Amino acid sequence: MTFVLTRVDYASVGVTARGTTRIFPATEPKVPQRFAVADQDGVLYIFGLKRGEFQVLFKSLPGAPVNRLVLGGTVSAPKDKIFLAQGNTVTGYTKKGKLFLEFDTSLLDTITAMYVLGSDLAACARDVYHRYRDCKDADSYLAGEKLYDVVLLPVGSVVAVLACGDCAIRVLYGTRSPAVLRLPSVPTTLTPYREAELDSTDRVLVGTMDGKVGLLMLDSDKSLRVSWILNRASSEVTSMDTFELQDGVDLIVGRQDGTVDVYTLPEDEDVEPMLRFHYNAGESISTVVGGFVGSGEYSELLVTTYSGKVFGLTTKPAGLIEAAGGEGNVARLREEIQQLEAELKKEFPSSMGLGNQDSLAPVVMSVNHRLTLNKEGASYLFTVELDRSIDNVLIQSDTPIELLDVEGNNAVMSLSTCDPNEGNFVLATYRCQDNTNRLEIKLRSIEGQPGTLQVYITSQIQPKCCRRILVPICALSLHARLHVDDKESIVGGPFNELRLTGSFSMAEMHAWLALALPDVPERPSVREEETEASMIYTSTFIGTVLKCRYKKSSATFLSENISTIIILRDLLTKEATKRKIKLDVFCDVAEASVSRVLELVMPRLKEVSELTEKIKILDALETWEMKSNPSELCSEYQELVRCESELREKMLMNSNALQRLHAAVTDLYVDWERAKNSRRISSKQAALKLQGALDLMDATMLLGAFTITDSSMAPTVSVPALLQ
User: Fold this and answer.
1) Is the pLDDT of residue 723 over 50?
2) Model's pTM, two decimal places?
3) Which one is the CATH code of 479-588: 3.10.20.740, 3.30.360.10, 1.25.40.340, 3.30.310.200?
């Protein structure tokens, strides 16, 4: 059953981080609840209704940016104490705004996740978890992976649930080794299941980076299991809550793309929730929580966005909202507008026509950006968001990249001519429409050609203000990291092998791999009582596997794709040369590895080729105006016309896939000749030799081209198997 929610705007604060808005527990039935918001200016606001008007009840002085706000209190009493994470310090306020705690956690990095349960406080900074009891050290854990969120459950002593960057949920109980639950994606948000203002002691909601939402159950042995999970791919989950909006408990989900979804939770925990409300705020959601804010009789969702907009989605009918607004509310709104205009003139004098101010005065512009790998499309999605309207976004790349269309992107892109000899391969400008705070740019890189993407952003309010973002593009950028417990269980092969020995440390090799591969963890992934780190990656485009094992003074890399081995060898030897470290490099080529790669490529090549032919037929039918009467066509063409939208959407996702597959096979031949026969040939020569077999899509002919030596090739250049 769906329902209608009406938006009611409450306030506007500074830029907000995730999880920085909380509603205080209700003091009595049918009384509006107060709530607290903290922003990146370090200001804490407490809002509530007073004498029938919505007012700021408390406002602190500016300070360090607030990265997390949680409520706490004694275990048996309502949570009415405010705890703020600012840098590595935790400050506490009462619900009336009185400061009662300033606690230096002594963590080296900024606190990004925090939870308070009674006298226990859990804080996460990068890959370190620390728990304090009464502001004294209780226990800690070094995860080795980025920690996104933490929840404490009052089971026995205290159970800590950690959302880790290696697609895992870790459960800590005392000094025992953590129980690990693997998920299909990286968990970014954890929230206790809430019902009737009480947090569950054995149920935790989890949201992932690719938009999945699930319910986790804590068993008696202190391990977690998945009760249900919504496997719909969507934008990253940034906030969750459970609340009874109407006729039962609902699941509330806020996402990075600005959407707010409400799902009905069935009584049977094994039944998947159903979507009953959807809303898009136009910018990423920092926090969404359910409560009674504008009225004690009508439930609503309280939403805070990245730029600091605070509004409600209420069950109160729109007619009652309009009737409740009188001249007093209109006067109050006019007063707020005047205050906002005064603040705008103070912050941006030149944009308001005041020319006496220094035009070179620096203006702080908050930018939220992220680059995420799309495994299905073997591409990247770059998201940039401002706390104000975007004017232009300029893209400059010193390595070849392909800019792709994004559905729903209303920005106008224009490409400029650039000279690759000057280090400019791509120069593009995105001109945004009015009131655009968020922009998505889809791009695809070429493996083996690392570089740097520079992004310049200007704002419509202050055109003279510009921010630059540097985005590194890895050498093996289209490889995705696999997260499994037993990495040796990953099948594959036959493998080409690269072995390196030299006077390097494990940490040094780990830093070099971070230049070659995406999603490399903060520290080497070393299990207890082991001296060797290991990682596994898979190519999102071809499907080959890369296994990395390294320790002090030695490293081994295995892959079916010889191109992956050559790219990795070139980068690692280059980095060692920079630091004047002597390396012994051994490369063993597996004869059957080529047939394995072709076995993976050929089905995809045939699929894309058939799809391309179908699109050509549809284009021809449209040119000849024959689609208007499908009954006159043969059954094959009728089926194409019927599935046209699906085929064109599929083609859009596989743009230039045929050329990319041809290029991958060509590069494979070039690298094969270099590694196997110790000679260098150009890509043009390889393409000419393979063209016939690729056009016919004949795997036997392709394999023959790799095994038969062509004496007409360019003169060979010796590449020794042992490099010093």
Assistant:
1) no
2) 0.85
3) 3.30.310.200
